[in-house]
Amino acid sequence: MSSLIADVRSVLTDAERVFGGLPEADRLAQVKERLDGPLRVAIAGKVKAGKSTLLNALVGERLAPTDTGECTKIVTWYRDGHTYQVMLHPTDGGAPTQARFHRDDGAIEVDLAGADATDFDRIDVSWPSSSLRTMTLIDTPGVGSLSDGVANKAFEFLDPEEDETPADAVLYLMKHIHASDLNLLEAFHDNTVSQPNPVNAVAVLSRADEIGAGRLDSMASAHKIATRYGEDGRLRRLVQMVVPVAGLLAETGETLTEWEFKSLRQLADFPSDELEPYLLSADRFVEARPETPLTSLEREQLLGRFGLFGVRLSLALLGRNVCESSAELSEELIARSGLNDLQTVLSTLFMDRAEVLKARSALLAIEHLCTEHPEVDGVSTLLAGIEQIMAGAHPFNELTTMAAVRSGWVKGRAADLKDVEQLLGSGGAAPWQRLGLEEGASQDEIRTASIEALSRWQRKAENPLTSLDLVTAGRVVIRTLEGLITSG
Question: Do 196 and 189 touch, CB atoms closer than 8 A?
């Protein structure tokens, strides 16, 4: 992987020489900064899909506003920083200005000084956070906004007309498979350097607890639906997998307060047969009779933080003595929200491939610049260098092959195609994940499994009855297995 980055840096250095002294040199400086910086992950989806709530859960702190209106009308970047700072970047390309901000119940409220949201290209939030050190999160406006200017911002961000896509990977929040969801995902996948590739996109079945009407088995139902969506041919060619997450529960689990725990404890200690009728709906819970613990305002606050599913789940956990402290309840809520599963996916599919994804973004940016200015001396040499890296870098071949399999371009038995995907890293790039072994597998176990898989795919590649496209995919798998064996 380090040699891939070295090759990309070499092309970048050549590009700086070719475009030196021209205005385009500034864009190359940004490419270099991007290559050296954290992975950029955009969070996209329809209006009120729960993007800001999920972002807060991933950061572990309530930063993005999550009220009942359209909270994100401007693309907002959240980066790790040494100081707390908010910068506004004008749409007209003018110099960014520092903005005043305050925190309302934890969320950052930015003062636009009377300006309209459409006057700004993006907001840059620098915030000291360990979660943001390896991953910059980008909150995008919702698709389907009532405002045309806001509605187009997500498409403009993920599929800009005059620049490369600013994000290296995307989390797309959805509740159903709609045409607008597929259109936005298609916009994110460029058709040049990497070819349409689902490896840098993951779909999140958001607000998953609402799927089962807030019942305690809602997440189990959500997992079944996510599995079914993950098998949908239209979605498989655009995303790596579908992960169900109850974003509100995850955010609250990460930011649970002692007051909330004590309030839930009071409700859990109340006779369950008397409380049960008030848990049938949000209105009943808030308007419960006076002798019910807490005031109606306090119950409304709990409902806003937990949702009906979260309240029911918390009371069940406390009533069964599964949790005896706020820390234990927090841990249980996070685990049951699906956030841990999503973080594992982010780690195995995005972070483990961070260098590949950033290298891809850098090459795409350089290629885009070259095609914009074919008249500049040295451009043809740069394009040849990019093509050479793409053809020779095995990590890119893995991504391209996996995309071809998931898109249905490679034909073969379902078991063989599933084997190809796993060996190429669809479930994670670590050797034990590729080979379907248990975590912590020994080097001997990895080597034995690699040799067995290599022998299997060598036989398939040599079989005259194997289709040409599967043979081509098999050769990439063989190269991967040879690397696992020699590296062990």
Answer: yes
Phi, psi of 407 (to 5 degrees): -85, -5
DSSP state, residue 471: H
Which of 89, 56, 79 is CA-nearest to residue 337? 56
Residue pLDDT, tens place only, 436-487: 999 899 999 999 999 999 999 999 999 999 999 999 999 999 999 999 998 8
Query: Regarding the domain delimited by 2-246+340-352, which CATH topology (the fold level of the hierarchy) does it fall under?
Result: Rossmann fold (3.40.50)
Cα Rg for the chain, rounded, in angstroms? 25
In this predicted structure, the answer to whether residue 226 has a pLDDT above a threshold of 50 is yes
The enclosing H or E element of 173 equals: strand 169-174
Six token digits for residue 191: 């058709």
Amino acid letter for position 153: K
Tell me the pLDDT tens digit for each residue of 319-330.
999 999 999 999
Q: Are 26 and 121 in contact (CB under 8 A)?
A: no
Q: How far is CA 131 from the centre of its chain?
A: 14
Interstrand relation of 39-45 and 120-126 (parallel, antiparallel or unpaired)? unpaired
- Higher-scoring residue by pLDDT: 319, 402: 319
Domain boundaries, the chain: 2-246+340-352, 251-337, 353-487
Please give the model's pTM, rounded to 2 decimal places. 0.80
